């Protein structure tokens, strides 16, 4: 059993679940969260525990600072400090900018960017004291180049990328690494709105000639968590050479 604890937000399904299972394979103590999908989160928890890893599941909005404080209080009581933080919680939205009202904008920014601030703000002090830690932010290629009809989503992920680079510079003297994975088109439920024809058209745009897999994001996340301490402040594209 690994003595370290990893927190993965937004882990009821898709990329977050795949990441949680990858760390369970290594015997980590695991904390997972979701905002709404309690039944799916509990199924993920059961799957993690069946692999021999202890798991804490928390249902709450990572965009809410009080909720995140409550989460970290539970983690501290159950496992102690968080050694690896994976900020994966987030939502997508497609629509014209002129039809993106303030409620939609604020919801996306809170879910995708403020959540990263909240979780980092809670875990960084312990990492600084320990002079050790890894923070991995699950971002998007649209945070690098932007996407038409996804202005709010692109802005939130662009903010995450800048946050990653800035925080890495601040924490590097404390031997803490902060990196981001800019995902391309990954075959998850977030893309379930696409028709078969849309998926085929999208696949034709990607030089790798396929969508990515959640397990591939999970493997890269694990490599960043377990690997080179000199790799820091990077936004790494995982997109099949798409962008």
UniProtKB/TrEMBL annotation:
The keyword RNA-binding belongs to this UniProt entry's keyword annotation: no
A GO biological process held by the record: steroid metabolic process
UniProt-listed SUPFAM superfamilies: NAD(P)-binding Rossmann-fold domains (SSF51735)
PROSITE patterns per record: ADH_SHORT
GO molecular function, one term: oxidoreductase activity
Signal peptide: none
Sequence intervals crossing the membrane: none
Top-level taxonomic group: Bacteria
Entry-linked InterPro entries: NAD(P)-bd_dom_sf, Sc_DH/Rdtase_CS, SDR, SDR_fam
Alphabetical UniProt keywords: Lipid metabolism, Oxidoreductase, Steroid metabolism
Record-stated family: Belongs to the short-chain dehydrogenases/reductases (SDR) family.
The name this protein goes by in its record: 3-ketoacyl-ACP reductase
Organism phylogeny: Bacteria, Bacillati, Bacillota, Clostridia, Lachnospirales
């Amino acid at each position: 059993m690994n003595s370290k604890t990893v927190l993965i937000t937004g882990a009821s399904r898709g990329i977050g679940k795949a990441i949680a299972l990858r760390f369970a394979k290594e015997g980590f103590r695991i904390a997972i969260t979701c905002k709404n999908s309690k039944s799916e989160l509990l199924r993920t928890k059961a799957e993690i525990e069946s692999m021999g890893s202890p798991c804490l599941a928390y249902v709450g909005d990572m965009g809410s600072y009080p909720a995140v404080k409550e989460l970290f209080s539970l983690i501290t009581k159950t496992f102690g400090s968080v050694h690896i933080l994976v900020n994966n919680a987030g939502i997508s939205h497609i629509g014209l900018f002129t039809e993106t009202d303030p409620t939609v904008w604020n919801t996306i920014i809170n879910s995708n960017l403020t959540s990263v601030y909240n979780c980092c703000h809670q875990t960084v002090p312990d990492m600084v004291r320990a002079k050790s830690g890894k923070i991995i932010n699950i971002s998007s290629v649209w945070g690098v180049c932007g996407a038409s009809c996804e202005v709010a989503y692109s802005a939130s992920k662009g903010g995450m990328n800048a946050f990653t680079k800035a925080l890495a510079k601040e924490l590097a003297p404390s031997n803490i690494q902060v990196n981001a994975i800019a995902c391309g088109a990954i075959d998850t439920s977030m893309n379930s709105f696409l028709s078969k024809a849309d998926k085929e058209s999208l696949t034709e745009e990607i030089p790798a000639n396929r969508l990515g897999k959640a397990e591939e994001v999970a493997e890269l996340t694990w490599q960043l968590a377990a690997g080179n301490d000199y790799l820091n402040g990077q936004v790494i594209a995982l997109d099949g050479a798409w962008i």
